[in-house]
Design brief:
heterodimer, A: about 240 residues, alpha/beta, 6-stranded mixed beta sheet, B: about 1000 residues, alpha+beta, 6-stranded mixed beta barrel, 25 strands
């Protein structure tokens, strides 16, 4: 019997409460979750259900109040801020709804930033950043600043940035939320392709069911809890494409 | 203080008053009409106390600099007034023989032949003033220099002043206060007793009861100190001996004679001077009858104090101009950023129906609230800064004028604070109103969504701007050339160069190329050696405005070049420092941000660069001038100089040396002597009135030996020696100092003497001999002297005057001028300092006061360097403007970049990296400004030095850069800049990524 690989990310009874000083809001109430390497998972649910909070807690962007989060087997809460930061730099990529590119840097400069943070040599970083941009089809826009790019292009740059350090997992928070349907479809297809071709793990927070349908699994949340999981078949076109 | 920024104070106050009145009226009317807008504005101001405090600090810096400059003027005014009041006390006028001037500025020794008058004149004066209600005191007095020795303490004071007056007539004058605080009278003094003032007692280290020897007219008299007293009006702020008039007459062997009649006007020491004109009117007929002269000593002293105060104000406001401009830029920056922060809110306000005018009003009300607090705080802080500066100045004056009794005393006038407050308030209000107008011109839809303002088509505006600029620039340049005014010329050409930018943009040239090209042309044009420009335009007049205008425009050009070539800088810095892998991501952010925000970075860079540039230029140029002073310039071939009292002259010093005790005549290889006489002088045929000035009689030995350099000679004289020889051989020839000569350039803040020559420029080379009429008012005799040489600027103030041969002076005014100033050259093995001490000891009875030239030069350099350091410190204040700008920008950046910081943290930036990114960002601006400002400042300093090297007097001047001082100033400022950024940097690093990324 083949050994079962441990989950790349695992949440055990995770609790998170926001205290505004006036009210306490329980954003996560005992969330259990496991992501396998190479999986593409969507987290869905109504606004305020705790999707983004879960993503932030799993990625180490936010601290949890109870439970445990293991990334590649290491509990996040046992890491110092510096170790968590270094883990993000080397093992994670991020895609955000509003792209969150640094407006004063060109596309390639934005993309190579995680590599520079990880102390990769400047020339090598530039080479890998250009390759990453090429992978998302934006090699020709490498020297344009975000203001000179369309929404779809900006999101591709964000994806290129998230890939450039060969991460173990990419976190995507509403990656299509600011895009029109055509661009949204292209972006999801791109992520799926990267997932299939490169074995990249994706966790996508989304409202959009059409995005969810293109993942391996949909996790539904309500009021800070996981209420449903749904495994999906790999869409034929994409599976074929991967082959 | 008579003038501020070259405008008479009263006129200036009226202008400020009108400006403030209009501002208050307009704001008041608007406030009454739109109370809700006032309420909203004040609420905004009070919403974030921390930020409000930062804005107020930023706004007040300009006011602080103005107030510091004005208060320094007040202090100098007050100091000189106090010194004069201490010397004159209640004495407002004197009636004395014509031409009798006891204390001739620039004379080392006393004037001789001043004349005595019969004490019966006192009664005549009293009678003339009787019933006028103008005077409350009239007394006869002897105010004369004496030497004093304290035998037990082995201390001497060669130039104390003996004040003798009739005790019964001292009522209207200042009281004599004893050491026990009780009032004393000269009548208390028994024969052989004297009062000493505190300064004399301190110098001689004597106390009540100690014996002293007073050398009056060269004869010693034993005396005992009855008490150490305080008395204002002894004729000096320095050491004084007080005796009854009879004793004074006995000491000088002049029974029944006095030197002058002193008059104290009704009112206190200052108010009395207002009556001087009436007193003069009343006394002049009597004085004419008796052949005497009425002098308004107090009014003249107060006027001199005003002029000196104004000179200091001019000095500090001129050097402070760059800081004030930087302060204005800071105010503009603050309000533009405030507007940027509120852009969304303002956009929504506009969307729901708020009119553009309402936004302007609301913003202006808010600005006015900050402005009011900032101007008041700035004025007070400026006074505090000036208080600190006074300490530094006090030490400088102590070094330079140790024997002159000048003690710097801090003073601040309500008028100066009011001017600083009003100027700060108005300047800020104008900038606020302009910013408010700029803010109101927004596109509502983009403002709400916080998107960049769309670019409007600018073709027509560019064309108008270019044409107006070219026309104005051309016109100014033409006016400059036709009026020989360099400032106008460079201003005109620079405006024309800058106007090419919109023209080039119209022609389709890229923004970078247009700004970079014009910026470079501007820099090269303004930094060209001035002689290169003048080779084309001909000689033109320059002054401090040239430096200010050139400096401002050079900085504009430089900032253009830097901000429009940001990527090149970024690339260079990354290539250089990016090799350090840990530094690369931090550097990328910290250079990219400032270079992408052109307006902010350019403005902050301009502020810093302006001030750095001023500090470097000011200190390097001043330092170069100070270091150009040498013993040769100051001594004129002699190593020791000395002065004696007028009543105990040494007519043949060379012979006296042979018999003097404790002196080896062989130590002195040359002795030259001078006499001095206060005269009325005017250039013949120039149509100017006679003015009081000084004529010197140089004896043959002085003329043979002197090497005092001449800045210019009359045509026909090949070298300086020929001029001095001509003075010795031909009667009637003279040399004048350079203060009385007209110049094309004006780089001086000093108050020039009233006596001035005209008809040529000092810079023009050889001149035609100039006839000068000289009148001795006492004898009524007149002689015409022909000026054939002008001393260099490097000659000491103690050579100021019209110098002719002693033979000429004696022949023209027989018996009037005897030598009281002696110069000595010493053998190589002799230490001039020791020789000076030996001379003082040997000729104590003559009140000989000697000093080595080296000591004088050292003291002069030390004092000038202290003033130089003071100026550096004052200018350094301007750097706080830049520091404040960095603080404001950093604080704003934390808010603006909140999400980006979140992303940075998400992709792996550690908290320390975020912190460093902010600190390096500030460093980039501060260090770029320091390096660029230093380079530009050094080039301009070199130009100034090079230009001066072509001028008479400064042929040997070298550029001297006070590297250590500059390094320390910049290090401190850089540290403060980092400290100002530290708080925002820490705040940025503490931003939690999850929260920062939560919302758009």
């Amino acid at each position: 019997m083949a050994a079962i690989a441990p989950p790349i990310v695992e949440a055990r009874a995770v609790h998170k409460t926001y205290d505004t000083g006036v009210v306490k809001v329980a954003a996560l109430r005992g969330v259990d979750l496991a992501l396998e390497a190479g999986e593409m998972v969507a987290i869905m649910g109504p606004s305020g259900c705790g999707k983004t909070t879960l993503l932030n807690c799993l990625s180490g962007l936010d601290a949890i109040d109870g439970g445990q989060v293991l990334v590649e087997g290491t509990p996040l809460e046992e890491m110092s801020d510096r170790e968590r930061t270094d883990t993000r730099a080397r093992r994670m990529g991020f895609v955000f709804q509003f792209y969150n590119l640094i407006p004063v840097l060109t596309s390639v400069e934005n993309v190579e930033l995680p590599l520079l943070v990880s102390r990769v040599d400047g020339d090598e970083a530039r080479e890998r950043a250009l390759a990453s941009l090429d992978l998302v089809g934006l090699a020709g826009r490498a020297h344009h600043v975000p203001d000179e790019l369309s929404g779809g292009e900006r999101q591709r740059v964000t994806i290129a940035r998230s890939l450039v350090n060969d991460p173990a997992i990419v976190w995507a928070d509403e990656p299509t939320g600011d895009l029109d349907s055509e661009n949204a479809e292209e972006i999801v297809a791109l992520m799926r392709r990267l997932n299939l071709e490169r074995g990249l793990t994706f966790l996508i927070v989304t409202h959009d069911i059409s995005v969810g349908r293109k993942t391996d699994r949909i996790i539904r949340m309500l009021d800070g809890q996981v209420v449903e999981e749904q495994r999906l078949e790999v869409p034929h076109v994409l599976a074929g494409h991967a082959a | 203080m008579n003038e501020v920024f070259g405008i008479p104070v009263d006129t200036f106050l009226v202008i400020l008053g009108v400006g403030l009145g209009i501002a208050v009226l307009v704001l008041g009317t608007l406030a009454i009409r739109s109370r809700i807008l006032v309420k909203l504005a004040l609420r905004s101001a009070g919403r974030r106390p921390g930020r409000t405090a930062l804005i107020v600090v930023g706004l007040m810096l300009g006011t602080t600099i103005i107030a510091a400059a004005l208060t320094t003027g007040d202090t100098m005014n007050h100091t000189i007034r106090s010194t004069a009041l201490e010397a004159l006390g209640a004495t407002d006028e004197t009636i004395a023989p014509k031409g009798a001037v006891d204390d001739i500025p620039g004379a080392l020794g006393s004037a001789t032949g001043a004349g005595w008058l019969d004490e019966s004149v006192v009664a005549d004066v009293e009678e003339a003033l009787a019933g006028s209600g103008l005077a409350d005191g009239v007394t006869g007095a002897i105010v004369e220099q004496v030497a004093v020795l304290a035998p037990d303490q082995r201390q001497s004071e060669p130039s104390a002043v003996l004040f003798a007056a009739g005790p019964e007539r001292m009522n209207g004058f200042s009281p004599i206060v004893g050491s026990d605080g009780e009032e004393r009278s000269l009548a208390e003094l028994a024969p052989g007793e004297v009062f000493l003032n505190a300064k004399a007692a301190e110098t001689l280290r004597v106390e009540t009861g100690d014996p002293v020897v007073v050398y009056a007219a060269g004869e010693p008299s034993q005396a005992r100190v009855r008490d150490v007293v305080r008395y204002e009006g002894a004729g000096t702020a320095d050491a004084a001996v007080l005796v009854p008039l009879v004793t004074g007459q006995q000491l000088f062997r002049r029974p029944g004679a006095i030197r002058a009649v002193l008059v104290s006007n009704e009112g206190d020491a200052i108010a009395g001077a207002a009556l001087s004109e009436q007193v003069v009117d009343r006394l002049e007929p009597l004085a004419d009858t008796l052949g005497l002269e009425v002098k308004t000593l107090k009014a003249d002293a107060l006027e001199d104090a005003e002029a000196a105060g104004a000179a200091f104000v001019a000095f500090f406001t001129t050097f402070g101009t760059f800081s004030i401009v930087a302060g204005i830029l800071l105010i503009f920056l603050i309000f533009v950023m405030l507007a940027a922060e509120r852009r969304g809110e303002l956009g929504i306000a506009r969307a729901v129906g708020t009119r553009r005018g309402h936004l302007v009003q609301m913003f202006t009300f808010e600005g006015a609230a900050y402005d009011l607090v900032a101007a008041a705080a700035g004025a007070l802080l400026g006074a505090a800064v000036a208080f600190g500066m006074v300490f530094v100045m006090a030490s400088a004056f102590l070094t330079a004028d140790a024997d002159e009794g000048v003690r710097i005393q801090f003073a601040v006038s309500g008028r100066s604070l009011a001017i600083a407050f009003a100027m700060g308030l108005l300047l800020t209000l104008v900038v606020v109103a302009v910013s408010a107008w700029r803010v109101s011109r927004m596109t509502i839809s983009t403002a709400i969504r916080n998107l960049p303002e769309p670019m409007a088509p600018k073709r027509r505006r560019r064309l108008v701007l270019a044409l107006v600029g070219l026309a104005a620039g051309g016109g100014l340049a033409f006016l400059g050339i036709s009026g020989d005014t360099y400032t106008l010329f460079i201003l005109g050409v620079s405006i024309a160069i800058m106007s090419l930018v919109p023209l080039l943009r119209l022609a389709g040239v890229s923004e970078r190329l247009a700004f970079t090209g014009c910026g470079l042309v501007l820099i090269v044009f303004l930094l060209l050696p001035w002689r290169a420009t003048e080779a084309v335009t001909g000689d033109m007049a320059m002054d401090f405005s040239t430096w200010i205008v050139a400096g401002l425009l050079i900085v504009v050009g430089t900032v253009w070049v830097i901000v429009f070539n940001a990527d090149v800088l970024l690339g260079g810095a990354m290539r250089l420092l990016g090799r350090f892998r840990g530094l690369a991501p931090v550097l990328r952010m910290s250079i990219a941000y400032p270079l992408s925000a052109r307006f902010r970075t350019g403005t902050t860079l301009a502020m810093f660069t302006l001030v750095v540039f001023t500090i470097v230029t000011g200190s390097a140029a001043n330092g170069s001038f100070v270091h150009a002073i040498g013993v040769e310039d100051y001594g004129g071939g002699f190593q020791v100089r000395s002065g004696t009292v007028g009543e105990a002259t040494i007519d043949d010093m060379q012979a006296a040396l042979v018999t003097a005790q404790g002196v080896d005549a062989a130590d002195f290889t040359a002795v030259g002597s001078q006499s001095v006489l206060a005269v009325e002088a005017a250039q013949a045929g120039a149509g100017r009135p006679d003015e009081t000035y000084l004529v010197r009689g140089l004896d043959d030995r002085f003329l043979e030996h002197t090497t005092f350099g001449l800045g210019q000679r009359a045509a026909g004289y090949e070298n300086d020696r020929e001029v001095w020889d001509a003075l010795r051989r031909e009667p009637g020839l003279a040399v004048v100092d350079s203060l009385v000569v007209p110049r094309r350039d004006n780089w001086d803040f000093g108050v020039p003497p009233d006596f001035q020559l005209s008809g040529f420029y000092y810079e023009e080379g050889a001149f035609d001999p100039i006839p000068v009429g000289v009148l001795d008012k006492q004898t009524g005799k007149r002689v015409t002297l022909t000026v054939i040489g002008i001393l260099k600027d490097t000659a000491p103030f103690e050579m100021a005057g019209i110098s002719t041969s002693q033979e000429t002076l004696s022949a023209a005014f027989p018996g009037r001028a005897r030598p009281t100033i002696h110069y000595f050259d010493t053998a190589p093995s002799v230490d001039p300092g020791e020789a000076a001490a030996q001379l003082e000891s040997a000729f104590l009875e003559n009140g000989l006061d000697a000093e080595s030239i080296q000591q004088v030069v050292d003291d002069t350099i030390a004092a000038n360097m202290t003033i130089n350091r003071l100026m550096q410190g004052f200018l350094g204040l301007g750097l706080l403007v830049g520091v404040a700008a960095l603080g404001v920008i950093s604080a704003r950046a934390v808010v603006e970049r909140r999400q980006q910081i979140g992303v940075m943290r998400a992709i792996g930036y550690r908290t320390s990296m975020v912190r460093w990114a902010f600190l390096i960002e500030s460093s980039f601006v501060a260090l770029t400004a320091i390096v660029v400002g230093t380079i530009l400042g050094l080039i301009l300093s070199w130009n100034i030095v090079d230009d001066q090297r072509q001028q008479p007097s400064w042929e040997n001047i070298q550029l001297v850069v006070p590297w250590l001082n500059l390094f320390l100033i910049f290090l401190v400022v850089y540290a403060v800049a980092l400290a100002a950024t530290l708080a925002p940097a820490i705040r940025a690093s503490r931003i939690l990524p999850a929260q920062a990324l939560r919302y758009q």
